[in-house]
Amino acid sequence: MYGELVKGGANVSIADLATDLAKKIAATIGQRGETLVAKVVPREERVEKIKKALNGKALPSVSVKLAERHYGAQTIDPAAETELGKVLQECGFKVVDDKSAEKADVEITGEAFSAFGMCKGNLIGRISVSCRVV
Predict the structure, then answer these.
(1) Domain membership of residue 119 as a residue range
(2) What's the pTM?
């Protein structure tokens, strides 16, 4: 957290003080902006880090079942389940499902929630609210 301060006498306009304060805030954001927001690590880098940590280890087969609920309307798009399964596959895990002959060594279950975010043309955005994995 950063703070800025401006002072003025009784004869100084509040508008002038607000302008000075805005300039100071803008300068602080310009100088320290990268510390105000968490760095977004690209997906590829996150997956590579997982792969390195798992390198040379025997990996169990896994199944992923994340019930997903979209507030405001029904959805059949299992985005969280699909993405988690995809990352696990990229990291070398064998991902099995109900249709597989093999039973999973590890079952990952949980719930994911989303809500309507915005609509631009025929594209509909969802905001992920929560994901709990057991």
Answers:
(1) 58-133
(2) 0.57
